[in-house]
Design a protein that fits this description.
Order of helices and strands: HEHHHEHEEHEHHHEHHEHEHEHHEH
Shape: globular
Helix content: 40-55%
Radius of gyration: 20 Å
CATH topology: TIM Barrel
Number of helices: 16
Number of strands: 10
Number of domains: 1
C-alpha cells in the first residue's frame, strides 16, 4: 500500500498492511542530501530535495516540509534568525517585542504576503515535493499556532506577562496573528497542500491549563476551522510534551489528531481519541530514536502498541528526529511494523446522529 492508500483505509476502518509510521523528519532530512540544516532552510531546491530523499529512504506516511518550523512566520513578522554552519537548527536571535512592557501595543504589521521572509521558499519547496511524490504520500506544510507565534515575537516570559497583566492586549495580539495564520492556511491549501498546526509553546508545564484555555484554545479552534473550511480533510494540532492536563481543551479545538507524547499515558489518550473519533499518534522518544540500541527501540514500539490497544485510528510517530539520528534506527522501526503486519482493531465508533437543538457536533469527527 502507498501511504495515501494506507491512511484512506484507516479512515474507512478497513485493514491496512501495517501501522502508519509518521516520524517528525525536519532537520534530519537535510542529512540525506549531505547538507547542513541551514543550507536546506534557505534554499527551496535543497529543501525540496531533502524531503523527497527522506521519503524515498524511509517511506513514512506523511511528509512535513520544513526545517526550523517555529521560525518561518516569526521571521516574516520581524524576528531575526541565525543560520548555522553545522548540524544545529537555525534559531531566533532577535524578538521585536521582547523588551516591551505588557501594556504596550506591539507595532505589528500582520498583513500576510508570501514574499515576506521565507514563506514563499517553503511554499515553493512543498509544492515541488507534492508534484514529485504527492500521488503516493500526503505532503503537509507546518503552521505555527497563534500562541506559539506570539511567544516567538515576545519571548515566553513576555507573552505570559502580557496574558496576566494586560489580557486585552494579549488577546488583541493573538487576534492579529490568527488573521495572518488564516491567510497562510489559505495560501497553503490553494496549492493542494495539507496543513499541520504546531503549538508546543502552549504545552504544560510551560503554560498553565487555565492560560491555555483562555489564550490558546479559542485561536487554535478558529485556525482548525479555517483549515476545514479550505477543504482540509485533516486538521492536526500537534502539541509536544505531556498534555494530559489540557487534554480536553485540545480535543475541544476540533483537531483530527491527538498526540500522546512526553510521558503521557497512551492508554488514556487512546480512550479519549477513540471516543472523539480522532486519530491517535503515539510518539516514540526522539532521544531513543537517536541513541538506540535497536532492540530497545523496537521493544518500545511493541510496548506502545500494546498500551494503546485496538483503537481504530492509530499512527506511530515521534518527536522531532535529530539531524544525527542513524537512518538504520528509522528503517528498523518501519521494517518492524511491516513484520508485525496488520494490527487488530476494534470497529470504529458509529457516527454521531445529526445534532439536535442544544447538541453540538462532535468537533473531532473526520469526514
Amino acid at each position: 500500500m502507498t501511504p495515501r492508500e494506507r491512511l484512506a483505509a484507516m479512515a474507512r476502518g478497513e485493514a491496512m498492511d501495517r501501522v502508519p509510521f509518521m516520524p517528525t523528519l525536519l532537520e534530519h532530512a537535510a542529512l540525506l542530501t549531505g547538507q547542513v540544516p541551514s543550507r536546506c532552510a534557505t534554499d527551496a531546491g535543497r529543501l525540496e530535495e531533502a524531503h523527497v530523499a527522506a521519503y524515498r529512504t524511509y517511506r513514512h506516511d506523511l511528509v512535513t516540509v520544513g526545517i526550523d518550523i517555529y521560525d518561518i512566520e516569526a521571521e516574516a513578522l520581524g524576528c531575526g534568525v541565525r543560520f548555522q554552519d553545522d548540524g544545529s537548527v537555525p534559531g531566533i536571535v532577535h524578538r521585536p517585542f521582547q523588551a516591551m512592557v505588557p501594556d504596550d501595543d506591539p507595532p505589528l504589521d500582520a498583513d500576510f504576503s508570501p514574499d515576506r521572509g521565507r514563506i514563499g521558499l517553503v511554499l515553493a519547496a512543498a509544492s515541488g515535493v507534492l508534484a514529485r511524490i504527492g500521488r503516493e504520500v500526503p505532503v503537509s506544510v507546518p503552521v505555527c499556532g497563534p500562541f506559539s507565534l506570539a511567544v516567538e515575537l515576545c519571548g515566553f516570559d513576555g507573552m505570559v506577562d502580557r496574558c496576566l497583566e494586560a489580557p486585552r492586549r494579549a488577546l488583541d495580539l493573538l487576534e492579529r496573528l490568527l488573521s495572518h495564520q488564516e491567510a497562510y492556511v489559505s495560501a497553503i491549501r490553494s496549492r493542494g497542500l495539507d496543513v499541520t498546526v504546531f503549538e508546543s509553546w502552549a504545552a504544560p508545564p510551560l503554560l498553565s491549563p487555565d492560560l491555555y484555555e483562555a489564550f490558546a484554545v479559542p485561536f487554535e479552534t478558529r485556525l482548525v476551522r479555517r483549515i476545514r473550511s479550505e477543504g482540509g480533510t485533516t486538521a492536526p494540532l500537534v502539541i509536544g510534551g505531556n498534555t494530559t492536563a489540557i487534554l480536553d481543551g485540545i480535543l475541544s479545538t476540533g483537531t483530527t489528531l491527538l498526540v500522546a507524547d512526553g510521558g503521557a499515558d497512551p492508554g488514556l489518550f487512546a480512550r479519549k481519541a477513540a471516543a472523539a473519533g480522532c486519530t491517535l499518534r503515539g510518539n516514540l522518544d526522539p532521544r531513543l530514536m537517536e541513541t538506540g540500541p535497536i532492540p530497545i527501540l523496537l521493544d518500545r514500539v511493541d510496548a506502545l502498541l500494546s498500551q494503546v490497544g485496538p483503537i481504530p485510528r492509530f499512527v506511530l510517530g515521534s518527536g522531532v528526529v535529530s539531524f544525527r539520528t542513524p537512518g538504520e534506527h528509522l528503517l528498523a522501526v518501519r521494517q518492524h511494523l511491516e513484520i508485525r503486519g496488520p494490527r487488530p482493531v476494534s470497529p470504529a465508533r458509529r457516527p454521531d446522529p445529526p445534532p439536535g437543538p442544544g447538541k453540538p457536533e462532535n468537533p473531532c469527527r473526520t469526514p
